[in-house]
Structure formats: structure tokens, C-alpha cells
Design brief:
Elements: H1 3-9, E1 23-25, H2 28-33, E2 39-42, H3 49-58, H4 66-74, E3 78-86, E4 89-100, E5 105-113, H5 122-136, E6 141-144, H6 151-155
Parallel strand pairs: 5-6
Antiparallel strand pairs: 1-2, 2-3, 3-4, 4-5
The structure holds coenzyme A.
Residues 59, 111-113, 118-124, 146-147, 149-150, 152-153, 156 line the site of coenzyme A.
Length: 174
């Protein structure tokens, strides 16, 4: 049974479906900050691409071709989403994904929280969820590329810029 089918047929069942994919409710503090309605995390990768596009639009990201977004999600090691649940309605309010060599390294991409839900501790909760999933898979080296305005957000989660002087380097086609 798919995650949402399980959730809606029995809201209490969310913790009993862990063997098919990992879902968790955020702690009570985060729920309170989100107005008391349940916030749920999922690693289910069947994300509605239009809903994801809407979320990315809301933070002003440039649009990307959906067929490529679909491919990126399919080939990601981890897809994490954060949902607000109200009765039978669910709303995608956060997203992140990670690519990996499945052994040592993972890189986190596309971290986003809907503006209406920002500054409530949910970005931090989403990142902690992602890191927990990666640690479960015994990935020990986690990297990401931070936009300049969010460096402090990631530092607050323990990420370091240029550890031991190591520089991220980029190549772009001319
Ligand atoms: C970056 C983002 C994911 C943070 O999510 P959020 O839910 O607002 O963050 P939180 O409320 O969990 O903040 C956690 C901590 O980080 C800090 N923080 C959040 N955004 C920050 C920022 N832009 N700069 C510095 N600190 C920031 C908060 O003050 C908070 O600090 P505290 O733990 O000391 O209280 C969210 O602002 C977002 O989606 N931005 C647009 C998309 C984006 O830029 N993504 C990153 C691409 S690299």
C-alpha cells in the first residue's frame, strides 16, 4: 500500500509502514510552529511534478524542464519531502534530494521550504531528516552547494565551508 493511501485510510498507520518507505511526523514543537497541524516527512519519490514546480516557483527559482526534474528525481539516491496534512488534504511544503555513490558520499540538492512555512524551524527539521536518512545508509561524507544567503543556515546544521582549505570547483560549458 502506498504511503498516502495508508495515511488516509488510517492516520495512525504512519509509523507502521516504515519497511516500505520512511515516514515520520515532525516533533510536536515543529507542529506547533506550523499552526498545530501535522507535518509529515516522506521518502516517497512519487512527487507530483507540478506541485514541486509550484513550490520552487514560490521561492523564485528559475523553472527547469519537468522531464529533466523527473529524471533527476528518479536518479536521486534520496528524495525527501515535507507535507502539511489537514484532514484528507496534503500540501507539499518542503523538498530536498541527494545524489550519492551509495557508499561514501552524498550531495544534497534543491533544499526548499515554502515561504509561508519558513522561519519556523521546518528547514532545519527537513535537513535533519535528510541527514538521518543518509546516516542510516552509512553515508559519512555529505556535501552541498549553498547559495551565499543561506550559508549560515547550513553552518547552523554543522556544515563547514572549505574544511581544511578544500575548495569546491565548477566547470561550465562555454
Ligand atoms: C533556506 C531555507 C530552506 C531555510 O528554511 P527555514 O524553514 O526558513 O529555516 P529554519 O526556520 O529551519 O531555520 C533554522 C535556523 O537557520 C537560520 N536561518 C534560516 N534561514 C537563514 C538564512 N537565509 N540565513 C541565515 N540563517 C538562516 C534560522 O534563523 C534558524 O536559526 P536558529 O536555529 O538559530 O533559530 C528556506 O529559507 C528556503 O527554502 N529558502 C529558499 C530556497 C533556498 O534558498 N534554498 C537553499 C538553496 S542552497
Amino acid at each position: 500500500m502506498g504511503f498516502w493511501k495508508a495515511w488516509f485510510s488510517n492516520p495512525e498507520a504512519v509509523n507502521t509502514t516504515k519497511n516500505t518507505s520512511v515516514e515520520e511526523k515532525v516533533n510536536a514543537t515543529a507542529n506547533n510552529r506550523a499552526g498545530g497541524t501535522p507535518i509529515v516527512f516522506s521518502t516517497e519519490r512519487e512527487i507530483d511534478l507540478y506541485e514541486l514546480e509550484e513550490l520552487c516557483d514560490a521561492v523564485g527559482w528559475s523553472r527547469r524542464p519537468l522531464r529533466k526534474v523527473k529524471k533527476a528525481i528518479e536518479h536521486s539516491f534520496l528524495v525527501a519531502s515535507m507535507w502539511q496534512v489537514r484532514g484528507t488534504q496534503k500540501r507539499l511544503i518542503g523538498f530536498a534530494r541527494a545524489t550519492s555513490d551509495h557508499a561514501f558520499n552524498a550531495t544534497i540538492w534543491d533544499v526548499v521550504v515554502h515561504p509561508e512555512y519558513q522561519s519556523k524551524g521546518l528547514g532545519k527539521a527537513l535537513m535533519k531528516y535528510v541527514l538521518k536518512q543518509l546516516r542510516t545508509e552509512e553515508i559519512s561524507n555529505v556535501t552541498l552547494f549553498a547559495d551565499p544567503h543561506v550559508v549560515e543556515f547550513y553552518q547552523g546544521l554543522g556544515f563547514m565551508s572549505d574544511p581544511e582549505g578544500i575548495k569546491g570547483m565548477f566547470w561550465y560549458p562555454h
